[in-house]
C-alpha cells in the first residue's frame, strides 16, 4: 500500500502518464500535498483532479468544526497522456514489454485512486454506514475521470481487456482484476507489492444486488417481471374521475407524482387518498412522490377567461360538415366509459331532466351568441348509479354555464335543464417575434410604473427576477418555447423584446417557467413555501423531490430540515435542472450520503436543456447517469417522454427510441395529458419487452 507520506513515489507513478517533454514544458495539476498528520488539523484541504471535463467546488462543515473545501481543477488540455501515442506501436512492440508498461501505468492509477480515498477519509467517515461503499466508489470514479485514460484503454483493448470505465459500480475491483489478469499473463511479479491486490467482493451479481437494494429502498419493489418503475404526474384531474387512478395503475404506473407548485393540500390529500385506496384494492404497490416547488421562476396567474366552451363539428375544405361533434351529456361529475371518446362534456344537475331523455330525442338550446342549436341523442350508457348520453351536434355552438336545454317529455310537456360547471377558458398572451413583454411584480399589474404602448403584460411572483437580471441577458419562457432579450429593468418591472416564437406566435399562460441562463441569480435552497409544504409531504408521501438543487449548501439546508423533523426514512430525490447542479453533482451526492434517507436523482430535462443548451443535453444526461451509477444511486428520467403520444395520441419515432434507452435508468416519468393511460401502457411494453433473436432461415441465405 502506498501512503500519502510517500508522496514523491506516488507523484513519480502518476507522472509516468506524461512524456518527458510534457513534464518539462507544461505544469500538471495532479498533486497530493497533504500528509496523514496534516489531515488531522483543522485547516482547509483541497482535492485537485486533472481532467478536461469542467470545474466544481464545495465547502463542507461537520461537528468537529473542521472545514473541508473540495475542488476539481480540470485544465482544458486533453494531452495529459499524449506521450502514449508516441510510444512503440502495440503491433510492433514486444508483447512482454507492452504488458509490463501497461502494468506500470495501472499500478500508478491504482495508487491514484487509493490516495484519493485516503485524502477524503475524514469526509467519507461522516457518511451513513449504508452509503460508505457508495461514496468511496464515487471518489474512486471521480479520481479515474480526472485523468485522460483513452490511450490506456486502447492498450487494454489490444490485450483483450475491457476499458477501465466500463464498470462504474466498483471501479477499484475492476482495476484490481485487470492488474491481476496481466500479472498472471506475464507470469512474473514486477514489484513485491503488486501480487497482493485483492480481487474484491465485486461480481456482476453482487453489483446488481447492491444497486437493486438502493433502488427498492427509494422507489419500492418493482412489479413482477418489471425492472423499471413508471412515474406519472397527476393533478386535479385525478379527483374528477372515479376511474383515472385505477386505469393508470393497471396500465403499469407504480409511482404517482404530485407537484406542490400546483394545487393545495385539499387536492393533494384527495389524490393521495385515492391512490392508497386503489393500490390496496388492486394489490398493486404504488408510492407517492411529491415535488417541492423550489425557487423556480414562473409567470404569475392570469385572470381566468370566460366560462364558455366551443362545440364544433368536423368540416371539409369547403366548410361542409363531415361528421358531427360528439357531446357527453350527464349529471355533474359523471365520466363517460373509457371506450367512449367525445369532443365536449355538458353537465346538468337535474336528474329528472336526464330521466326524460330517450335515444332519438332532440335537445334544443340557444347558445351564447343567441343562435338556436340542437343536440340529437344517439347513445345511452349506464355509469355507476347514473345515466349518461352521447349527443350529436351538427352546427358550431358556444355553450356557457346557465344555458337552458329543453326536451319534449311525456304528454308533450317540455322539460328544461341548465348547463353547469363550464370551466373558464385558459388565459394567455400570444407572443410573436418583435413583440414587447412587460413583466411586473405580482400585485402591481394594475399600477404599472412604465407605460409601453402595445406591450403585453404578465406578472412574476418571485422577487429574484427583478433583483438580479440585467439588460442584454437572454430570457426563456415555457421550457424554451419562447425566447427574448431583456431591454430594460426597474425594481418592479422587466421589459423583454421577443426574439424567438412560433410563426403564428406562441401562447404564454399562467405558471409557465422562466429561465435566465446568463444571470447570476442566488436562490435559497428551500423557500418558505417549501418548508411549509415539507410538513405535509412528511406525513403523506413516500418521497420528496427537491427542485433546483445547485450545490452542497442546498443539501446542508435540506439535511437540517429533515433532521429537525426526524425524517430519516423519507425518500429524497435531487432534481438536477441547472448548470451548477450538474457540475456539482458528485459533491452533492457525497454530501447527501451523510444522512440515512434513501436518495435518488431526477434528470429534469426541461429546465436542464434551457439552462445548459439543447445541443449539450444528451451528453449531460449520459454524464449524470454515469456518475449516479458510480454512486449506486437510482436515476429518474423526466420531461417529454412520449410527449406526442400523451398529447396527440401518436408517438414520434424518436420518442420511442428515447423511451427504449430509458431501460438504463431506475424510473421513467410521464407528464399528464389526455392520452396518459395509453402512454403508460406503451411505455410499460417498451421498457419490459425483451429482444428475442431469431435465427435466420438457412434456406433464405442462398
From TrEMBL:
Pathway, per UniProt? Carbohydrate degradation; glycolysis; pyruvate from D-glyceraldehyde 3-phosphate: step 5/5
Q: What's an example of a GO molecular-function annotation for this chain?
A: kinase activity
SUPFAM superfamilies membership = Phosphoenolpyruvate/pyruvate domain, PK beta-barrel domain-like
Q: Report the Pfam families cross-referenced here.
A: PK
Which domain of life does this protein belong to? Eukaryota
Key word Protein transport present in the record?
no
Name the Enzyme Commission number(s) assigned to this protein.
Answer: 2.7.1.40
Name what cofactor the protein needs: K(+)
Q: List, alphabetically, the Gene3D superfamilies matched.
A: Phosphoenolpyruvate-binding domains, PK beta-barrel domain-like
Keyword set for this entry? ATP-binding, Glycolysis, Kinase, Magnesium, Metal-binding, Nucleotide-binding, Pyruvate, Transferase
Q: Does the keyword Magnesium apply?
A: yes
InterPro entries membership: Pyr_Knase (IPR001697), Pyrv/PenolPyrv_kinase-like_dom (IPR015813), Pyrv_kinase-like_dom_sf (IPR040442), Pyrv_Knase-like_insert_dom_sf (IPR011037), Pyrv_Knase_brl (IPR015793), Pyrv_Knase_insert_dom_sf (IPR015806)
Q: Which residues form the Pyruvate kinase barrel domain?
A: 226-312, 464-671
Q: Which family does it belong to?
A: Belongs to the pyruvate kinase family.
What is the name of this protein?
pyruvate kinase
Amino acid at each position: 500500500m502506498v501512503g500519502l507520506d510517500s508522496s514523491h513515489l506516488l507523484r513519480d507513478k502518476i507522472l509516468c502518464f506524461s512524456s518527458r517533454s510534457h513534464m518539462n514544458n507544461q505544469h500538471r495539476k495532479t498533486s497530493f500535498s497533504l500528509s496523514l498528520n496534516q489531515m488531522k488539523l483543522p485547516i482547509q484541504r483541497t482535492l485537485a483532479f486533472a481532467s478536461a471535463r469542467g470545474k466544481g467546488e464545495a465547502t463542507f462543515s461537520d461537528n468537529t468544526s473542521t472545514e473541508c473545501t473540495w475542488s476539481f481543477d480540470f485544465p482544458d488540455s486533453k494531452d495529459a497522456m499524449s506521450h502514449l501515442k508516441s510510444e512503440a506501436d502495440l503491433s510492433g512492440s514486444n508483447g512482454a514489454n507492452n504488458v509490463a508498461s501497461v502494468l506500470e501505468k495501472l499500478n500508478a492509477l491504482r495508487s491514484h485512486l487509493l490516495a484519493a480515498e485516503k485524502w477524503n477519509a475524514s469526509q467519507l467517515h461522516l457518511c451513513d454506514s449504508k452509503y460508505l461503499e457508495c461514496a468511496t466508489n464515487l471518489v474512486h470514479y471521480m479520481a479515474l475521470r480526472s485523468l485522460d485514460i483513452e490511450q490506456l484503454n486502447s492498450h487494454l483493448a489490444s490485450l483483450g481487456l475491457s476499458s477501465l470505465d466500463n464498470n462504474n459500480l466498483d471501479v477499484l475491483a475492476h482495476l484490481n482484476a485487470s492488474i491481476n489478469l496481466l500479472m498472471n499473463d506475464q507470469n512474473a511479479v514486477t514489484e513485491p507489492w503488486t501480487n497482493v491486490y485483492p480481487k474484491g467482493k465485486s461480481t456482476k451479481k453482487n453489483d446488481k444486488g447492491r444497486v437493486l437494494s438502493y433502488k427498492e429502498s427509494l422507489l419500492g419493489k418493482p412489479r413482477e417481471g418489471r425492472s423499471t418503475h413508471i412515474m406519472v404526474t397527476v393533478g386535479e384531474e385525478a379527483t374528477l374521475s372515479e376511474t383515472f387512478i385505477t386505469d393508470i395503475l393497471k396500465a403499469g404506473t407504480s409511482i404517482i407524482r404530485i407537484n406542490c407548485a400546483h394545487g393545495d393540500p385539499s387536492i393533494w390529500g384527495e389524490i393521495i387518498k385515492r391512490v392508497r385506496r386503489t393500490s390496496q384494492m388492486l394489490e398493486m404497490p404504488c408510492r407517492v412522490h411529491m415535488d417541492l416547488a423550489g425557487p423556480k421562476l414562473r409567470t404569475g396567474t392570469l385572470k381566468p377567461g370566460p366560462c364558455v366552451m366551443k362545440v364544433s363539428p368536423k368540416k371539409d375544405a369547403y366548410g361542409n360538415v363531415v361528421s358531427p361533434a360528439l357531446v357527453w351529456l350527464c349529471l355533474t361529475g359523471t365520466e363517460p366509459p373509457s371506450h367512449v371518446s367525445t369532443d365536449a362534456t355538458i353537465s346538468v344537475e337535474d336528474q329528472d331532466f336526464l330521466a326524460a331523455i330517450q335515444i332519438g330525442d332532440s335537445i334544443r338550446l340557444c347558445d351564447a351568441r343567441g343562435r338556436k342549436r340542437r343536440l340529437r341523442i344517439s347513445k345511452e350508457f349506464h355509469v355507476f348509479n347514473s345515466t349518461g348520453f352521447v349527443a350529436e351536434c351538427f352546427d358550431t355552438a358556444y355553450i356557457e354555464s346557465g344555458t337552458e336545454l329543453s326536451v319534449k317529455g311525456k304528454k308533450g310537456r317540455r322539460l328544461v335543464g341548465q348547463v353547469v360547471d363550464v370551466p373558464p377558458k385558459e388565459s394567455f398572451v400570444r407572443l410573436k417575434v418583435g413583440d414587447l413583454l412587460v413583466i411586473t411584480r405580482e400585485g402591481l399589474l394594475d399600477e404599472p410604473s412604465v407605460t409601453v404602448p402595445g406591450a403585453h403584460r404578465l406578472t412574476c411572483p418571485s422577487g429574484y427576477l427583478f433583483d438580479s437580471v440585467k439588460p442584454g441577458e437572454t430570457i426563456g419562457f415555457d421550457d424554451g418555447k419562447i425566447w427574448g432579450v431583456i431591454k430594460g429593468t426597474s425594481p418592479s418591472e422587466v421589459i423583454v423584446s421577443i426574439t424567438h416564437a412560433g410563426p403564428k406566435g406562441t401562447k404564454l399562460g399562467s405558471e409557465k417557467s422562466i429561465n435566465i441562463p446568463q444571470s447570476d441569480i442566488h436562490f435559497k435552497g428551500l423557500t418558505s413555501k417549501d418548508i411549509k409544504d415539507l410538513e405535509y409531504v412528511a406525513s403523506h408521501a413516500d418521497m420528496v423531490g427537491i427542485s433546483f438543487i445547485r450545490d452542497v449548501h442546498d443539501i446542508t439546508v435540506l439535511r437540517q430540515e429533515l433532521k429537525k423533523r426526524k425524517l430519516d426514512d423519507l425518500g429524497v430525490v435531487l432534481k438536477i435542472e441547472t448548470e451548477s447542479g450538474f457540475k456539482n453533482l458528485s459533491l452533492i451526492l457525497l454530501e447527501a450520503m451523510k444522512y440515512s434517507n434513501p436518495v435518488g436523482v431526477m434528470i429534469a430535462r426541461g429546465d436542464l436543456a434551457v439552462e445548459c443548451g439543447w445541443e449539450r443535453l444528451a451528453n449531460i444526461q449520459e454524464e449524470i447517469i454515469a456518475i449516479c451509477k458510480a454512486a449506486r444511486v437510482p436515476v429518474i428520467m423526466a420531461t417529454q417522454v412520449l410527449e406526442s403520444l400523451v398529447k396527440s395520441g401518436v408517438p414520434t419515432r424518436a420518442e420511442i427510441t428515447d423511451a427504449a434507452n430509458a431501460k438504463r435508468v431506475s424510473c421513467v416519468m410521464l407528464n399528464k395529458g389526455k392520452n396518459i393511460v395509453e402512454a403508460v401502457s406503451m411505455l410499460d411494453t417498451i421498457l419490459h419487452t425483451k429482444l428475442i433473436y431469431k435465427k435466420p432461415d438457412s434456406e433464405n441465405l442462398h
